[in-house]
Structures are given as C-alpha cells and as structure tokens.
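pasting for the record
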Amino acid sequence: MDRATFACSTAFFRDYSSSSQGAFCLPGGHVDFIEKVESFTYSDFFRDYLIPNHPCIFSAKFTEDWGSRRNWVTWDGKPNFDHLLQKFGEAVVPVANCDVKEYNSNPKEQLPFKEYIKYWKEYIKNDYRSSRGCLYLKDWHLSRAFPEQDVYTTPVYFSSDWLNEYWDAIAVDDYRFVYMGPKGSWTPFHADVFRSYSWSANICGRKKWLLYPAGQEEYLKDRHGNLPFDVTAPSLQDRSVYPRYNQSQPPVEIVQEAGEIVFIPSGWHHQVYNLEDTISINHNWVNGCNVAIMWCFLQDELAAVQREINEWKDPMDDWHLQCQLIMKSCTGIDYKEFYNFLKVIAENRISVLENGLDDEALAKNTPKAAISTLGMLHAVFDLKRTVKVLTSLSANEDFKKLDLTSLSPPPEALLHHLKAAIDTALL
C-alpha cells in the first residue's frame, strides 16, 4: 500500500471507528439499488450501508457467475428439479409448514430432499394446494453438507463475517443457509439471530420483503409485550390488543427479483413472502460494525431470563449459572462463549497484523486470507471495536459472577494484547 492510500484508508477507518449505529429512517421508504459491480467498492458498502445500518439491493450482475444460477435454474427461470435431485437427492432437509403456527413460528420436520421435491412438483400441479399444507425448505446448511459443490461465492462486501469465522473455527455450526419454497411460502415476522446482518440472494424466483427499522418493532407489540406473528393480520388494527400500532411507520417494502441480493441491516425486523417458486442463498453475519448490537441483544436476553425466574433467585445457589444456561438454550450462546467468540476473532486479526500471510495462504479460502484481503486497517478497526465490547463484557456484573478460571487467556490479558497490537499496527 502506497503512502497516500495508507493515509486515506487510515482516515476512513478512524472516522468510522467512533461512529454510532442505530435505527435509520429511510425517506419515503427508498432503498438504494446497486447496479454495477465495477463501480461499487467494499469501502462504498462499508460507509453507506454497514455503518449507517441501511438496507440496499444488489443487481443480478453480482451473482451472474454463480454455479447455482447456471445449473439450478431452467431456461424459463424455474427451479431445475432434475439437477437438484441428481446432486442432493439423498440429503435430509429441514422443512417448515407455513400453514401452521407453533408458538411464534412454523413447526419443522426433517424430510428426505427427494420427498420434498416430489411434494413440490405435486403442489404446483395441484394449483398450489396440498393436504400437507404449504411446506417450505428452510435453514438448510447445504454448504456445510456439500462443500465440494460449485454453488456460490460470498461477495466481498459480506466477507467480514465473524459468526461464520468463529463457528467454522470450532467446527460446530454455521450461519449459511439455502431456502427453497413454492409460491405462497413465507417467513413470519422476526429479527435475525443475535440481531445480525443478513444477506439473501435469489437464485430463481421473486420475494417480497416487509422491513421495519430497528426500534419500530416496539410499536408492533401487543399489550403483553409480544411481537405479532404476521404484521399484515387485521388484528393489529385492534387498539385494545395492539395499543401502539398506529404509531408505527409503514414497513419498507422490497420486491426482490431473480439474481438480486438484499442486504438486511442489523436488528431490522422483517417478514418475507415467496411470490413465485423460489430458491435463495442466505447468510447471517456479525462484524465490527454491529458486534455492539449483538452484545446489547445478549444483555437484553439475559435480563429477560432473570425476570422470568427471579422468584428462584434466593433458594437457588447457582441461579446466575442457570440463567446463563437458559439464555444459551434460547439464543445459542452465553456470556463465556461470547468471550471466546471475541477471542477467536481478535487472535485471527492479531496473527495477520503480527505475522502477515504468505502467497500460498492468501490463495486459500480461509478467514485469515479474508482479513488480509480487506487490509491491515480493517483488521485494526475490528480490533478497536472488539476492545470496546470486551471492555464492557469484562466490567459486566453478571459476567464477573461466573467462574472465569477456564478462560484462556484471562480477559485482562487479552485486552492488553489487543491494545498493544493496535498501537503497534498504527505506529
């Protein structure tokens, strides 16, 4: 990197290191459409969408070289069932019934992929009706199950992905999904896991999105504090049940065409409909721009658990630990794992800053290669954001009540290492 570029990049990341992120009101519900690949940079996305937490749509040009768009779609833009059966017929997949409400979601079952495709074909032939209901294949970890398949390449704009970087490192889970469903299938009102960002690319078909900026969901809660299952339901007009609904803004509406990618900001609640037979690729991800929102979400979740079982606080010796266990069962993470999450992310960036990567390592699709591709100053930005959240976590009273002896290195030592690495990198 030459001196002028370094100076410019330093100013760029310094400006945004102290930026705050919150709800963003879109004038007239407008959502930017990014047309050209060659004229839209990662810095543009970082500045205009990640930091201000602002949705956007990427044109189909951003996905036109994906294997799934070439092979999973027929000449007339429909799902290529024959090809999909040939590649994935023996897989077992999660399928939700869109016609049934179970608590605040749709019940799921595991089905052989070939059985689901048989159902889908019959559903289409029967004019989109079935005694089995409207079944939607959701949250399929296809990339993890079939890593050798040429399906897609994650666009550089979404490559700073701490969630998948961490869960890949511990080989437990991932947040990369395939969705497949007939016209009429839908996803009820929700915000994404950990209040993460998400991106969703249509391989074929069309979707309609109803988006509410972060904070607007408060006006949509009923008198008991519960969010609606369906934000289009007539019952929301009943003020005795939803007393603040008339104070909410209308949703931002997006119709997403085949090949397009929608970027959903952190903490934005949404509801999604398939307007046609549709296949999509979806990722959830967290990075330095929204990790503080994830931390706030975890604190809110723990507080909700503590309120729920407050009556057992005195007679239960390990009440604080039980609260953590319940929170993890509900959200998928507790405070100690959140510490380990931050540690893995930080140590990967420190390693790149201190040791760099050789050409062979850069050629491989690894988290450290992605860090190096985004540049040293992005790694420093990530470390600065990690320091802020880790400092807050370390000072948190609920965290300090846990047995922290198993954490290695201890939080104080990790913080010291992070700050030293930042200082050295900026010399």
